[in-house]
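User: what does the whole thing look like in 3D?
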Amino acid sequence: MESLTILLEVFNSSLRLATPLLLACLAGLFSERAGIFDIGLEGKMLAAAFFSAAIAAVTGSVWIGLLAGIGASLALAGIHGLASITFRGDQLISGVAINFLAAGLTVLIAQSWFQQGGRTPSLGDGARFGPLGSQIFIYVALMTVPASWWVLFRTRFGLRLRAVGENPAAVDTAGVNVVRLRFAAVAICGVLCGIAGAYLSTALQAGFVKDMTAGRGFIALAALIFAKWRPWHALGACFLFGFLQAISLRPDLIEAVIGFKVQVQLLDALPYILTVVILAGFVGSAIPPRAGGAPYVKER
Amino acid sequence: MTLMKSLLGAAAAVALTAGAASAEPALVFDLGGKFDKSFNESAYNGAKRWADETGGTFREIELQSDAQREQALRRFAESGANPIVMAGFAFATALGEVAGDYPDTKFAIIDMVVDAPNVRSVVFNEHEGSYLVGMLAAQASESGTVSFVGGMDIPLIRRFACGYAQGAKAVNPDINVVSNMTGTTPTAWNDPVKGSELTKAQISQGSDVVFAAAGGTGVGVLQTAADEGILSIGVDSNQNYLHPGKVLTSMMKRVDNAVYDALTAGADLETGFNVMGLSNEGVGYAIDENNASLISAEMTEAVEAAKVKIVSGEIAVHDYMSDETCPALTF
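Assistant: Here's the predicted 3D structure for the full assembly of 631 residues, as structure tokens:
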């Protein structure tokens, strides 16, 4: 009985930790499937975390906060799209810029609005999602998996979106607007990152703390590669990474189960180690969308 | 280029002579900013208390980036400010560069040791304060398990954990102390989500009092403890107000006292090591209207008795940083 409760607790903890990863991972999936690499997931989540908490603190309504968070993330996604689609800039550099922009801007605005050392005030009852609201986020994240699969693999929009990531010239020849499709993908990415960020600051936490995403956007990217850009596998990868994070919280359990002490640091590093193993081609090869990273230039 | 340099040098010399007349003290805040509800604000409060009591004035600057550290120190030194107090260990490198160039200016650095003849290095005996809050935790605990959440796994934080465990075991030798560190990189200071999950994991191990020495991560620890109905202990400044009636106490580092002392001494500041411990009100535990109902008279009595014994040397709290071992806790 006791071991069942413990198992349930670890499972719950895994789910809570996997949810932001899963949302960010699917966000990256849409963007990268359309040929736009996005290492700015972290920055978009951070901006969303800040604006959802800050606006919720100011207005007292968590729902307006959620919208503001999604809006902030969308705005950054728009900048990324503008830089890498319209102006054909380097997608990686634009992503890095977004991460830096978000890290600096959130603390700056937080300081000027609230004077609490780059934090928002603690959110009261109406300004944060209670236990029930937090669960809804988990279900939303889980439902996004089949929804993404359906959109990407069962609709015309999805087919075109994937084609734009593989061979944009062919899609263009067929008379489909490449730029518009890529912007649509980047916007979906922005919305999902926005939900992930709002989940961190208004559901799991009651307020924003500087840099509170703590690298989750990068773990989500690792999960995306681990899942080889497929929605259902993304669920598996994110849950695995969430599970690894959850059991690293309980070194006593690991010791009880396997009989010797495992360094927590090793468990923290495991998601990255696994990703390197996958990238090195030990478990099949991970091939990114072929046109990923390359801006599309229409031939004249 | 050389012309420019000599011009600048001349300008600096003029500034030096002009500023030497006013020996105001100066205070340099670290990146968190003056009103960070924590370390820097505590430093500011100390300086303000000095200004209010003596009618003196002090100069101050809030840094915006790491690159400004050395520049800020030099500007104050050249304008004749004395002493120059800086809040935060991150100034060590910059101060090491600057101190030798201004032998007549006194500097005070908090939380770090810089070996120079005109520098006062203020360090705190965090293990002593942690010992006292560990005693309070053990007395408040009904389950017989208390816990600790550290930020980044560095010797300083293990010193907190070790003192805490010793205090708890002094009250109840059979008590179970669960200790977790958030991580091994600087992100561990700002990961409240992981702080929350660690707290939940500790609650499932039976803990009903949790002590967070984890910077921004601690915000998540205190929040989760309040949500889940267990007690928490804040750190550095008085954090009792964050969740009134749910924060047992706070382990305070009296940065304000350190700054106040330095400003009071003025240009006659005594340099060298300055240890702020229980004996000179450098560390302590916070009691105010937010937690008065949680701390009974006998709890205070026991802790005050221990405090007297620590000051007199009758109780020796083991300092993790002295030999990197802890008798009360395994890491």
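In plain terms: Residues 15-124+257-276 of chain B form a domain with the Rossmann fold fold (CATH 3.40.50.2300). The CA atoms of residues 103 and 118 of chain B lie 6 Å apart.
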